[in-house]
Amino acid sequence: MLKGKKIVVGITGSIAAYKVPFLVRLLIKEGAEIRIIMTPAATDFVTPLTLSTLSQHAVIIDPFKAHSGEWNNHVELGQWADLMIFAPVTANTLGKMVNGIADNFVITAYLSAKCPVYIAPAMDLDMYGHHSTQNNIRKLKSYGNHIIEPQVGELASGLSGPGRMEEPERILNIIIGHFAQQHVLINKQVLITTGPTYEKIDPARYIGNFSTGRMGICLAMDAAERGAEVTLIAGPTNLTADHARIKRINVESADEMYEVCMLEAPHADIVIMAAAVADYTVAAKSPSKLKKNHSSYSLELLPTKDILLEIGKKKKKNQILVGFALETDNELDNAKQKLIHKNLDYIVLNSLKDTGAGFGLETNKVSIIDAFGTIHQGNLKTKQEVAEDILDIICKHRTI
Ligand code: CTP
Fold first, then answer.
1. CATH assignment at residue 308
2. Atom of ligand 1 nearest to the CA of 324
3. 55, 108, 127, 307: most buried, per Cβ within 10 A?
């Protein structure tokens, strides 16, 4: 199942390192090519000789090969790998990963990764539960890493609780699942909109909203990782979406977004409208900066075109349309009405009433409703995890 896949295994100094030779054996049995990197502390728990024998390659511990003065190139390793799995990862290494403290080869390789990164923490339950560790895990998730949560069970300290590194068989399945899902959207064209739109009042001012564009960018990255060719139409946002399969088109106003969407949507197999498009625009934009020489000021606003409604009207056979609904009241009914009115296959409901959900946050909580009325109720998750949930559902659609 992993034939030809190039995987870097990074080991740090936890007792759970004794499980890694089993993981390496399982990966090799599946046909993967393995390179192993270790922190010096990890060598106290499992020997480099065991690992180099299993992987049939020298294990890298030092940036400089002992005696020869030769440099081990972490950048090359970062480019070589299709996937990096760091297991076990100590609380210390989690902190270094978050802050980019590159004082060993494992961290330099992590920072050079161009591929998906999986991290399997292992530590005692109190260390795992500490705010610092939990904050670090949240940050690593928000950077796009996949965390393989530790299991609850007996720990080396004799205590029992969460902190046991996930079992090698289960890590293998996660890795196999990763590569399997990578191909699901191959040859599919996916159009995603994201960010706010800015409606100019004059050259210095605009009407906008609090959207950061993070949700749409997480969707774009995840769709690209699953093999799709993604066109990302982004309103003003500073966030980047670096992936070879993402073509980004920046727009500013609702009208510009409409024009680009009308050109791109007919080519798309899947359209996901995550943008927070302005519903109204300024009737008469002033060419010069407005002066404060009025005691009060009224702006005339005119409705913008509803992009998703237009795409829904022209929906092609087998095209999948996904909209978002941002609601504060009567959430479910409003979302269901939008789904029907705009001819959608799915609507992702965000309630601004939910703590941790909405604009400008790292997290989100959504319900995904399909055209048959089935509701997939989600918990509070990172936006990356929400993006994965949305794409998991789309990938099971009958036309994919
Ligand atoms: N949308 C759009 N074009 C607009 C406004 C909204 O394509 N001019 C899309 C959004 O990207 C989203 C969906 O329509 O996917 C629903 O947006 P939302 O703001 O929740 O609802 P509206 O349809 O604008 O209705 P209302 O603001 O009255 O709730």
1. 3.40.50.10300
2. 15
3. 307
- Please check the confidence at residue 362 and state whether its pLDDT lies above 80: no
Q: End of a domain among 137, 155, 182? A: 182
Whole-model pTM? 0.76
What is the pLDDT averaged over residues 29-33?
97
Q: How far is the CA of 343 from the centre of ligand 1 (A)?
A: 13
Report CA(388)–ligand 1 centroid distance (Å). Answer: 22
The candidate with the shortest Cα–Cα distance to 140, out of 179, 186, 93, 178, is: 93
Place of tokens 């759970």: 16
Residues 242 and 328 in one domain: yes
> Does residue 82 form part of some domain?
yes
**CA 91 – CA 127 distance, rounded (Å):** 7
Q: Tell me which residues are annotated as active site.
A: 209
Res 153: pLDDT: 87
**SS3 assignment, position 60:** strand
Q: Which of 257, 307, 345 to mutate to test the pocket of ligand 1 (most atoms within 8 A of CB)?
A: 307
Q: Tell me how many domains the chain contains.
A: 2
pLDDT band, residue 47 (cuts 50/70/90): very high
Q: Is residue 302 part of a domain?
A: yes
Minimal-distance CA residue to ligand 1 atom 8: 306
Q: What is the structure's pLDDT at 155?
A: 86
Give a yes or no: residue 351 inside a domain: yes
Domain containing 215 equals 189-395
Atom of ligand 1 lying closest to residue 322 CA: 15
Residue 279 alpha carbon to ligand 1 centre in Å: 7
Same domain, 116 and 221: no
Residue 68 predicted with pLDDT over 60: no
Distances (CA, A) of 244 to 141, 225, 229, 385: 21, 10, 9, 21
In a domain, 1, yes or no: no
Which residues, judged by CB distance below 6 Å to any ligand atom, belong to the binding site of ligand 1?
A: 254, 273, 275, 277, 279, 304, 306-308, 323-326, 338
Q: Do 264 and 321 fall into the same domain?
A: yes
CA distance 285 to 113: 46
Mean pLDDT of 128-151: 93
pLDDT in tens, 304-316: 999 999 999 999 9
Same domain (yes/no): 226, 369: yes
**Which of 315, 326, 343 is the best mutation target for the ligand 1 pocket, counting ligand atoms within 8 Å of the beta carbon and taking the most?**
326
Q: For residue 259, which of 197, 217, 211, 322 has the smallest C-alpha distance?
A: 197
Provide the pLDDT for residue 40.
96
In this predicted structure, the answer to whether residue 205 has a pLDDT above a threshold of 70 is yes
Nearest CA-CA partner of 390 in 223, 146, 207:
223
- Which residue, of 182, 210, 245, is where some domain finishes? 182
Judgement on whether residues 137 and 216 belong to the same structural domain of the protein: no
How far does the centroid of ligand 1 lie from the alpha carbon of residue 243, in Å? 27
